[in-house]
C-alpha cells in the first residue's frame, strides 16, 4: 500500500510516460468576464493530457501521446507544436471526417468556465501499437474529458486495463462534468470505477463537488479513498492542496506563488512537476511540492504552455531536496 512518504523506482523503459486523451485549441478570452460576455479570444495549445506531456518533456522526460486530431489546419498546428516539443507521436491519429476539438475558456484567476466543441478526439481507436507504447512506458496517464463519449471512452478503458495488468503506474485526473456525458450523472459510475484502479488522482474542489456533491475537503478525501483511490491530491485553489493516502493524517501544502495571471492549465503543470518528481525518485510528499512549484511558475503567464524554467532551477528556487539515491543528475 502506497503512503505519502514512499518513493518509487522504475524499470528502464523507452518512455517515462504515455498519455491517452485530447489535444485541442484553447480559445482563451482577453477579458476577465463571464464567458457569454467575452468578445475577444486568443488561440492557445490545449488539452489536459497534451499539456502534461509537453510540460514533462520540458522537464527532461521522454513522453508519448495517444490522441486523434482532424485532418485540418488546426490539427496541423497542434501536431507541429507537439513535434517541436519532442513528444513521440507514433500513436497520433488523423480523422478524415471530424474536426480538431476546440474549447472556449474565460480568462480567470479562479476556476474558469468553458464551452467545448468536440470532434476527432471522440474517435480515438485502439491498436496494437498503442498497447506496445504502454508496455514501454513507466507511467500511464489519462483524464476524464476523453472518457465522456464513445468510442474514445471504451478504448480508454481498454488502455487503462492493459496498463494496470502490466503493472504500470496509473495516474488519473477525475474531472467529471455530467454535462459532457450523454448519460449525465450516471457517468460518475465509470469515473468511480477508474478511481479504484488509479495509483494517483488529482481532483480539485470543483471536481469533488461534481462527483460527490457539497461537502468538506476532509470528507471528500474519505469518499475518494472509499471508492478505492490510493493517493489523493485534492487541490484547493489559492489555499494549496491536501495530500492523503487514507492511512496517515492528510498533509496540507500551501501554494508557492500568490502572483496569478491565468490559472488555465495550472492543474496540468502540477501533474507534470509531480510525476517528474515521482520518476526522479522523490518521496510522494516531496513530488507534490515539486508539482506546486511548477504550477507556481505556470500561473504567472497566460495559456497552458506558458514558460517553465529548467527542472534544476525550479528545484533550487523552491529548495526542494532530492533524496540520496534519486536520479536528478541523470
By CATH reckoning, the class would read: Alpha Beta
The N- to C-terminal Cα distance equals 28 Å
Any low-confidence stretches, pLDDT <50, length ≥5? none
CATH architecture classification: 3-Layer(aba) Sandwich
Question: Mean pLDDT, as a whole number?
Answer: 90
Organism: Halanaerobium congolense
InterPro entries: Carboh/pur_kinase_PfkB_CS, PfkB_Carbo_kinase, PfkB_dom, Ribokinase-like
Domain Carbohydrate kinase PfkB: 16-309
Keywords: ATP-binding, Kinase, Nucleotide-binding, Transferase
Outline of this structure?
The protein is an alpha/beta fold and 330 residues long. Helices cover 33% and strands 21% of the residues. It has a single domain, classed as UDP-N-acetylmuramoyl-L-alanine:D-glutamate ligase, CATH 3.40.1190.
Question: Could you give the topology of this structure?
Answer:
Elements lengths: L14 E6 L3 E6 L11 E6 L1 H11 L4 E8 L2 H13 L2 E8 L6 E4 L8 E4 L10 H8 L1 E7 L8 H14 L3 E5 L14 H8 L4 E2 L3 H8 L4 H10 L4 E5 L5 E4 L6 E3 L12 H14 L4 H15 L12 H7 L13
Helix pairs in contact: 1-8, 8-9
Amino acid at each position: 500500500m502506497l503512503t505519502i512518504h514512499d518513493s518509487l523506482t522504475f524499470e528502464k523503459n523507452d518512455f517515462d510516460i504515455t498519455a491517452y486523451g485530447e489535444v485541442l485549441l484553447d480559445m482563451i478570452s482577453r477579458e476577465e468576464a463571464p464567458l457569454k460576455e467575452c468578445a475577444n479570444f486568443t488561440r492557445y495549445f490545449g488539452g489536459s493530457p497534451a499539456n502534461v506531456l509537453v510540460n514533462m518533456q520540458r522537464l527532461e522526460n521522454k513522453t508519448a501521446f495517444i490522441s486523434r486530431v482532424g485532418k485540418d489546419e488546426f490539427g496541423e498546428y497542434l501536431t507541429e507544436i507537439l513535434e517541436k516539443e519532442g513528444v513521440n507521436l507514433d500513436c497520433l491519429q488523423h480523422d478524415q471526417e471530424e474536426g480538431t476539438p476546440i474549447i472556449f475558456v474565460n480568462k480567470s484567476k479562479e476556476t474558469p468556465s468553458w464551452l467545448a466543441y468536440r470532434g476527432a478526439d471522440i474517435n480515438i481507436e485502439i491498436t496494437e501499437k498503442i498497447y506496445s507504447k504502454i508496455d514501454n512506458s513507466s507511467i500511464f496517464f489519462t483524464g476524464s474529458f476523453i472518457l465522456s463519449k464513445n468510442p474514445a471512452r471504451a478504448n480508454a478503458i481498454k488502455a487503462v486495463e492493459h496498463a494496470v495488468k502490466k503493472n504500470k503506474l496509473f495516474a488519473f485526473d477525475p474531472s467529471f462534468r455530467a454535462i459532457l456525458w450523454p448519460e449525465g450523472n450516471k457517468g460518475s459510475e465509470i469515473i468511480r470505477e477508474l478511481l479504484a484502479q488509479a495509483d494517483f488522482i488529482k481532483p480539485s474542489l470543483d471536481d469533488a463537488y461534481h462527483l460527490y456533491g457539497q461537502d468538506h475537503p476532509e470528507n471528500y478525501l474519505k469518499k475518494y479513498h472509499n471508492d478505492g483511490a490510493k493517493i489523493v491530491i485534492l487541490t484547493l485553489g489559492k489555499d494549496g492542496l491536501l495530500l492523503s493516502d487514507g492511512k496517515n493524517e492528510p498533509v496540507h501544502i500551501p501554494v508557492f506563488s500568490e502572483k496569478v495571471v491565468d490559472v488555465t492549465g495550472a492543474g496540468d503543470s502540477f501533474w507534470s512537476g509531480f510525476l517528474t518528481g515521482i520518476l526522479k525518485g522523490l518521496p510522494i510528499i516531496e513530488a507534490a511540492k515539486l508539482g506546486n512549484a511548477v504550477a507556481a511558475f505556470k500561473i504567472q503567464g497566460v495559456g497552458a504552455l506558458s514558460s517553465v524554467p529548467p527542472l534544476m532551477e525550479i528545484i533550487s528556487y523552491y529548495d526542494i531536496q532530492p533524496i540520496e539515491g534519486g536520479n536528478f543528475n541523470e
